[in-house]
Write a structure and sequence with these properties.
heterodimer; A: alpha/beta; Glutaredoxin; Rossmann fold; Ubiquitin-like (UB roll); 5 domains; five-stranded mixed sheet; 38% helix; 15% strand; B: alpha+beta; binds flavin mononucleotide; binds iron/sulfur cluster; binds FE2/S2 (inorganic) cluster
């Protein structure tokens, strides 16, 4: 009997932790429980993603509320002995703050979790996503039964409108407004679609929600059906998310069995059918009109918006399309009221938002915060700051390929739609990539343009050819073929691509270039005029030089260099043979004394005096293009 | 009826018309490459973009409804600049082999570039060298000249109900191709050739027969069956060298493939 179970070991069964070995850990935990004879009181449950994927496999033990990370099968005997038998936290696997020895066993004290406010992710890591009973225990389907028995569609729409919820799929369109229009258009065939395409590189918010709490998405969809008088829903999930597909399918089957889907939901006579559509995983298929064409079996290409989707969408029928996270908010808004939701976040950006925090920071993972939280709190308190000690924060990229890079001056702005937009990025779907000062911003812009050029559906000229031309131009700049006037061409072209493209992909594709040009223009200028990539990322535009005045002769770079380009005797200044150097930057990353300087490509054959001059400029932090002339010619 | 203003001129049009249709009905020309009145709005070439007062961004006139009170400008500096950029982009990789292109002289790209083109391109890029697809018996597909307006694909699917052509790939490498990249197998109605604004889809039998400007064109009724389609025959020195259908004439538009004197092809080919 389950009631006898004293302790639940909620082991993460999310995609990230599965990849780092959850299955083996589960087996050894179960075996160890059996060996110690506690298998009837301690039970291992696979939960959904806990958000702390980088430290996976992770596990939270309840009711003790203790958190363990990086669990290897060989650690399991020790863990069981200490925690489950002796009843004290197993220090070895507990969370420790970066560079600190003190372990923090309680999940509520760990900064990563402490500063989060969970609405969409409230069930993550504490329920078994494959059991409807678990969801129901956590107030699941209560909102639905209330809506079906006590509320008129108009009332549901009003609560959603009053809550201030805005679409989490990117555009931030007020959800209540969309539903209101959906309800107003009368038709006996109307569709509800959940957008789980999630094509942004590095984003996994929606995947996590679908994996860790599939019923929340389904309940949100049924509620949308009730509110807009629609009776058929599709969940569009990319086929690359097999675990999400599997769990959603299990959840849908359970709903049909329990009378939560079908022709007579909860005995009220309301009918709603739901099916999963697996998309091929193109970024553009996340765009509403392309997604609908894709479900229709056509080429996933956006179509001009002669009609709103709420009027003519899927199969030319009225269609209400929302993002996964948007829908997962709905049950709790219905249950707790619009006022409660409004109390989180700001007037214009109410509620919480889930961000996928990645990049050069300590705590990579999924975080949910109220929308008035500052970037600083997310990056430094929750994210634990920059990973490498000698590196500093440079920029944060928000909104993926449609977004932009924000520099340090903006760390104290809240993550509201308005404030982020003003800074030149967008909240988008919630991708947040933190970059330290070893990141080349031109190269970063090039990375995103490569992505959009590749993902453009090819329908319209400005996007299909414009993004390719921009990518080629950035590639030239990174290769040392940049010319005076390139920046102006990039800006001018961006303007036309934004104005002339058919869909949001093209209309936002230039943003990464425009935002980096706005805040890191000097870096572009150095690339173009000085043939100098100050971060050494663009290998054709950098020379690695050991400053003999600073080098301690520790030999670390010599050992790290993949080609024996570094030579030198112990305790004596080392030297890099420019002929042999591959410009891989390994030595620069390795040196603890900041003795290696990154100079322009031209320094490879320059005389000693010039090299010294450049190296001193780098040390003084005054290197780089200023005004019309390049530093190199003006020395 | 809907009342609106285009370039300051008051006009009225039927409800449900697009801005482009309203303009054309009132004698105002807007450049366009992917529009065809028989086909659903596509919005791909972006040349028909116009400015609408009060809207944040310019809109494609072929894919925006004309509604009451709109105040539209079709030839502002902003709009002209966008058209220039779009044409410049179209030509970055275009082979511009007009000297040996059968379309020359009646090519929409040539005409538009003449009117809007930027005489100096800002981009240096390799030309598209894709070899022509000559596998089919009658239609030659030069994808290097294709601007992906999608008209051939759509006329074949929406109008002829065949769907013999498709768009393959995505982004920049997208190409028009017969199903599975095989030889084109269809009714050989030739509609795709007629709608193609460029020299990408051309009649194989007519290749290198005559420059478009030396053909004398005459409308006639196809004698093949009782349908009575209107054909436009092009002849030079008394010899009929090609036939084509015109957007505005006749009920069906059929073409003649065989050279005069050659036998017809199995009832698929007319004349
Ligand atoms: C190129 C492109 C990709 C998009 N990808 C997604 C996506 O992966 N998931 C998503 O929910 N919305 C995506 N969107 C936004 C959708 O078009 C749509 O606005 C959104 O799903 C509406 O739901 P919401 O109002 O709940 O945000 C994308 C938009 C564009 C232009
Ligand atoms: S903007 Fe890009 S993705 Fe969107 S329709 Fe045009 S080509 Fe396709
Ligand atoms: S940049 Fe790479 S190849 Fe060159 S010296 Fe340093 S480690 Fe060696
Ligand atoms: S790692 Fe730095 S200090 Fe050590 S030998 Fe290399 S350059 Fe000198
Ligand atoms: S399609 Fe037009 S522009 Fe292109 S080569 Fe032929 S005639 Fe010239
Ligand atoms: S072949 Fe011609 S009609 Fe077809 S897409 Fe290309 S340019 Fe348009
Ligand atoms: S997959 Fe385990 S924490 Fe995300
Ligand atoms: S004619 Fe309107 S976009 Fe091509």
């Amino acid at each position: 009997m389950e009631t006898a179970v004293r302790t639940h070991a909620m082991l993460c069964g999310g995609t990230g932790c599965m990849a780092s070995g959850t299955k083996k850990v589960k087996a050894s935990l179960e075996e160890e429980f059996r060996k110690k004879g506690i298998d009837d009181e301690a039970k291992v449950v696979l939960s959904g993603c806990n958000g702390f994927c980088a430290k996976g496999p992770v596990m939270a033990v309840y009711p003790d509320e203790t958190f363990y990370q990086d669990i290897r099968p060989e650690d399991v005997p020790g863990l069981v002995e200490e925690h489950f038998l002796k009843g004290r936290p197993y220090e070895k696997l507990a969370f420790k703050e970066h560079d600190k020895k003190i372990s923090i066993p309680s999940i509520h004290d760990i900064p990563f979790f402490k500063h989060q406010v969970l609405v969409v992710l409230k069930n993550k890591g504490i329920i078994d996503p494959e059991r409807i009973e678990d969801y129901i225990t956590m107030d699941g389907y209560k909102a639905l039964s209330r809506a079906l028995t006590l509320m008129k569609p108009e009332e549901i729409v009003k609560v959603v409108t009053d809550s201030g919820l805005r679409g989490r799929g990117g555009a931030g369109f007020p959800t209540g407004k969309k539903w209101e229009l959906g309800l107003k258009i009368k038709s006996d065939e109307k569709y509800v679609i959940c957008n789980g395409d999630e094509g942004d590189p590095g984003a996994f918010m929606d995947r996590s929600v679908m994996e860790s709490d599939p019923h929340a998405v389904i309940e949100g969809m049924i509620l949308c059906g009730v509110a807009t008088e629609s009776h058929k829903g599709y969940i569009y999930v990319r086929a690359e998310y097999p675990l999400a597909v599997k769990r959603l399918q299990i959840a849908i089957d359970q709903c049909y069995k329990s009378g939560l889907l079908g022709s007579n939901i909860l005995g009220t006579g309301f009918a709603f059918d739901l099916e999963i559509y697996q998309g091929a995983g193109a970024f553009v298929c996340g765009e509403a009109t392309a997604l609908m064409r894709s479900i229709e079996g056509k080429r996933g290409m956006p179509r001009p918006k002669l009609w709103r989707s709420a009027v003519r969408g899927l199969w030319d029928r009225p269609t209400i399309l929302n993002n996964v996270e948007t829908l997962a908010n709905i049950p709790q808004i219905i249950l707790n009221g619009a006022g409660w939701y409004r109390s989180l976040g700001t007037e214009e950006s109410a509620g919480t938002k889930v961000f996928a925090l990645t990049g050069d920071i300590n705590n990579v993972g999924l975080v949910e915060v109220p929308m008035d939280t500052t970037l600083r709190r997310i990056i430094f308190d929750i994210g634990g700051g920059i990973t490498k000690k000698k590196r500093k924060f440079k920029a944060v990229q928000l909104g993926g390929p449609s977004g932009g890079c924000i520099p340090g001056e903006f760390l104290d702005i809240p993550v509201t739609y308005e404030a982020i937009k003003q800074s030149g990025a967008i909240v988008g779907s919630g991708g947040m990539v933190v970059m330290d000062d070893s990141t080349c911003m031109v190269n970063t812009a090039k990375f995103f343009l490569d992505f959009t050029a590749d993902e453009s559906c090819g329908k319209c000229v400005p996007c299909r050819i414009g993004t390719k031309v921009m990518y080629d131009l950035l590639g030239d700049i990174c290769k040392g073929r940049g010319k005076a006037g390139d920046i102006e061409i990039l800006e001018d072209l961006s303007e036309d691509i934004i104005d002339a493209s058919l869909c949001g992909l093209g209309q936002s594709a230039p943003n990464p270039v425009l935002s980096t040009l706005k805040y890191f223009r000097r870096e572009y200028e150095m690339h173009i005029h000085d043939k100098w990539c100050p971060t050494g990322v663009c290998s054709d535009l950098s020379t690695f030089y050991i400053d003999e005045k600073l080098c301690k002769g520790c030999g670390a770079c010599l050992r790290a260099c993949p080609t024996d380009a570094v030579t030198g005797e112990k305790k004596k200044p080392h030297k890099i043979d420019q002929e042999q150097c591959l410009h891989c930057r390994t030595c620069w990353d390795t040196c603890k004394f900041d003795s290696i300087k990154i100079l322009p490509a031209t320094a490879r054959n320059a005389g000693h005096a010039e090299i010294r001059h450049l190296a001193e400029m780098v040390t003084a932090g005054s290197a780089g293009f200023r005004g019309k002339e390049s530093v190199i010619s003006s020395q | 009826m809907v009342k609106l203003k285009i370039n300051g001129k008051k006009i009225s049009t039927k409800k449900g018309s697009t801005i482009l249709e309203a303009a054309l009905d009132n004698g105002i020309n807007i450049p366009r490459l992917c529009h065809d009145k028989r086909l659903a709005p596509y919005g791909g070439c972006r040349l028909c973009i116009v400015e609408i007062e009060g809207r944040r961004k310019p809109e494609a006139s072929c894919a925006t409804f004309a509604t009451d009170g709109l105040n539209i400008w079709t030839d502002t500096p902003k709009v002209r600049k966008i058209r220039q950029t779009v044409l410049e982009l179209m030509l970055v990789h275009h082979p511009l082999d007009c000297p040996v292109c059968d379309k020359a002289g009646e090519c929409n790209i040539q005409d538009l570039a003449y009117e809007y083109g930027n005489p100096r391109t800002r981009f240096i890029a390799e030309k598209n060298h894709a070899l022509p697809d000559t596998k089919g018996p009658l239609v030659e597909l030069n994808s290097s000249r294709c601007i992906l307006c999608g008209k051939c694909v759509r006329i074949c699917a929406e109008h002829q109900g065949k769907g013999a052509l498709g768009l393959i790939g995505r982004g920049f490498p997208t190409v028009v191709q017969p199903a599975f990249g095989e030889a084109l197998e269809c009714d050989y109605c030739g509609q795709c050739i007629d709608v193609c604004p460029t020299g990408a889809l051309m009649s194989k039998t007519h290749k290198f027969e005559a420059r478009s400007w030396s053909l004398e064109e005459k409308d006639t009724v196809c004698p093949f069956c009782g349908c009575g389609c209107t054909l436009t025959l092009g002849s030079m020195e008394g010899k009929i060298l090609r036939s084509r259908g015109k957007e505005d004439s006749g009920k069906g538009e059929r073409r003649q493939w065989s050279k005069p004197g050659e036998p017809m092809q199995q009832g698929k080919v007319w004349y």
